[in-house]
Design brief:
Elements (H helix, E strand, L loop, with lengths): L1 E4 H15 L3 E5 L15 H5 L4 E3 L4 H13 L3 E5 L10 H8 L2 H4 L9 E6 L14 H5 L5 E3 L4 H13 L4 E6 L7 E4 L12 E4 L4 E5 L2 H17 L3 E5 L2 E3 L3 H11 L2 E8 L5 H11 L8 E6 L9 H7 L3 H12 L2
Parallel strand pairs: 2-3, 2-4, 4-5, 5-7, 6-7, 10-11, 10-13, 13-14
Antiparallel strand pairs: 1-8, 6-12, 9-11
């Protein structure tokens, strides 16, 4: 094992996949010599040359379009969108092209494409560098949507994404890039896309989250166990599409209570789907309402630090929501 930060694990995954498969290449804004705005590709340009680390124009539509064309030509592109906020110009390419090629061709054409993007708040990025966009794409059959919360999962899931025969959107919680650390195996390994991870076993309440919120949920659960004797189970969803429905229901069946957390706006955020699954399939096991904790319904995350902190759930607000639900 080697201890890594989240960003180190992502870089390590791309390094190993570039070495393993000559069809793999990375393209995006400043991914070459500069190593990307968050240095996710730092050092890879010198190691693999400009043919494998391809700087793109400031045009997200073309980044994804090039990736789709390369994938159809049996290459394995990793397209970096510098911030998830910038992905919208490529929406048509992702939703109407990449997601539908396999279906419209009757299974004759695969699009083995990975689109990486840092998402979410917590870095004082303001309106256009703090958005959570996962709910848009988790609505689309034909895509897989993955959001890791640990270095171990970030590396293993990204390697699985590169090897997947169809398009994967890989969103990374940028606040956790250097804040989250953990042990990562030195050997080659993958984490399968689909299954959730039981981040913490518990008996009193089930907490469902992903990305930075899963990390915060673990912190809150450990705090409550020490201070109040509340035993919260934390389920790190990891994959939003396809979602691990059996794991969700198994946890609710055990605890009888459910809290769903995401940092995007509350209304029609991804957590609503998890709440609906629980209401539909887990209703007989519930001993209280299915509660959600999310960002407020405002147009965007503010730049001001205090307002940003108000917008985002954090370990303290998560712990408070758990206490309220357990006491229900």
């Amino acid at each position: 094992m080697t201890q890594m930060t989240l960003i180190d694990a992502i870089r390590s995954a791309m390094d190993e996949e570039l070495a393993r498969d000559p069809r793999v290449f990375i393209t995006g804004e400043d991914v070459g010599e500069r190593g990307g705005v968050f240095r996710a590709t730092q050092g890879l340009h010198a190691k693999y040359s400009r043919d494998r680390l391809v700087d793109s124009p400031l045009a997200e539509l073309s980044i994804v379009a090039v990736g789709i064309g390369a994938a159809l030509a049996d290459l394995r592109p990793i397209c970096e969108i510098q911030f998830a906020d910038f992905i919208h110009p490529a929406f048509n390419q992702i939703v109407n092209e990449a997601a539908k090629f396999y279906y419209r061709s009757g299974g004759q054409w695969n699009v083995p494409l990975v689109i990486r993007a840092p998402y979410g708040g917590g870095v004082s990025g303001g309106l256009y560098h703090s958005q959570s966009v996962e709910a848009f794409f988790a609505h689309v059959p034909g895509l897989k949507v993955v959001i890791p919360s640990t270095p171990h999962d970030a590396k293993g899931l990204l390697k699985s994404a590169v090897r997947d025969p169809n398009p994967v959107l890989f969103f990374e919680p940028k606040k956790g890039y250097r804040a989250i650390k953990g042990d990562v195996p030195d050997d080659d390994y993958t984490v399968p896309i689909g299954p959730a991870r039981v981040a913490r076993q518990g008996r009193d309440v089930s907490v469902f989250a992903y990305g930075m919120m899963a990390h915060y949920a673990e912190l809150a659960a450990h705090q409550l166990a020490a201070e109040a004797g509340i035993d919260a189970e934390v389920i790190d969803l990891r994959t939003l599409l396809p979602v691990d429905r059996p794991a969700i229901i198994a946890s609710v069946r055990k605890t009888g209570k459910a809290l769903v957390i995401h940092e995007d706006n509350l209304t029609m955020g991804y957590g609503a789907e998890i709440a609906a699954i629980i209401a539909d399939e887990g209703f007989p096991y519930l001993d209280g309402p299915v509660k959600r904790l999310a960002g407020p319904d405002v147009p965007a995350m503010p730049f001001a630090h205090d307002m940003q902190e108000f917008f985002m759930p954090n370990p303290e607000s998560i712990a408070s929501a758990i206490r309220d639900l357990v006491a229900y």
